[in-house]
């Protein structure tokens, strides 16, 4: 057990060798960290599974962490973690680290700025392609999570990795079915792998999780370069990464495929539950439904969806989606309630860290600095009744996006961080918000939807995701829906 040195933060060694406080932390990180914060203040160190994590819990001090770029490293931890779970090469090693430095910026270059429009247009087509395959004009019941995953997994996958050539998939015969069947299998594999991820994050080798291991390898098979290169409409992100990894001669084909698996996971693992919560909270709140439906109707009307072109797919620009502030607020509120990401940096050197309060603490080389924004998202001083869903929490009195939130009478710079912040901030965040907006818009346009049992007590989250992002619900819930024969609501007779 390590001893606390002078000027170091309070230290929680726990009483179990190696594990430290891992069990208490893993059971419910939010409650555990809150209780330590109450006792020891805004900064403290916990031993978790053999490593030392110094938690910075004061949101005003987050900027001080982000300013420590020289002393605190993000890549080392992120690449080490990703290598462990996805099984790709060690890109921290000298033989790869030079070339990998050129690969990382591809995220920002292909997921942000003007190129985003193309990604959004493809996603719009793909969501509608999946919805239009549906023929449930009579009421059907399905798990809400299943409904969301079925549509969003396939649409998101095809948007990034392109569509397989149907003639090749079906041996030249069938139309349509093989692509979706192969997507359904990929979705099952994705869930089998993703479910085991928290345990792998805690250190369990994937080989002890045979089902997850097989699922990971099956997914990687689909992402071999020779197969991806045959696909139509590859995203710029995947195309550029294929070119870059092809230049790394040391990597074999399966090793390259595993690097694409990281992208598949990053693009789906948080988006699926975030979409689930956005739709769930919207359906539960009559006020949210009314406001969202009015916004969707307005935008559809503006983009010319008239009775003459009802059979044509809905097309919305990025600007139109950006202007959908009610949906934006619903999504941000759902993210606030369900996000439990942990942000981690590793100290390159011994250094002194100065908190916003002016207090100084000594940080040891090799220790991890951790931020857990869920503590801020659930702080009643910042968000009144923090466990309640308020669809317009992120709208001001003029209906614009609200950005002023306060603690101790001071305005917060960081008040909502489901996507992290600083150097490691999620590069896919703009795409993610847009694709959830597209999903909500299109499901409101194409379906009548209601929860089977609206009076059921609110779903709770499963709080054991080891800081890996958006928490899934503890269980699924039944959704009733039927297609509306492609008629946008503003063109329907009042119901
Ligand atoms: C609601 C959906 C999403 C949420 C909540 C989310 C959240 C996050 C978070 C918390 C991180 C790590 C930040 C950190 O460690 O500080 C991250 C990283 C990342 N995300 Fe997202 N994400 C979402 C969707 C997406 C999508 C759709 C994509 C891609 C198309 C994507 C691509 C990535 C990538 C590539 C990284 C790693 C960045 C790096 O290594 O620098 N994410 N995301």
UniProtKB/TrEMBL annotation:
GO molecular-function term, one example from the UniProt record: heme binding
Gene Ontology BP term (one): bile acid biosynthetic process
Gene3D superfamilies attached to this UniProt entry: Cytochrome P450
UniProt: heme binding residues: 426
Pathway where this protein functions: Lipid metabolism; bile acid biosynthesis
Pfam families attached to this UniProt entry: p450
Gene Ontology, cellular component aspect: endoplasmic reticulum membrane
UniProt binding sites for substrate: 84, 270
Keyword Secreted in annotation: no
Subcellular location as annotated: Endoplasmic reticulum membrane
Listed cofactors: heme
Keywords from the UniProt entry: Endoplasmic reticulum, Heme, Iron, Lipid metabolism, Membrane, Metal-binding, Oxidoreductase, Signal, Steroid metabolism
UniProt-listed SUPFAM superfamilies: Cytochrome P450 (SSF48264)
Similarity remark: Belongs to the cytochrome P450 family.
Identification of the protein by name: Cytochrome P450, family 7, subfamily B, polypeptide 1
Organism: Paramormyrops kingsleyae
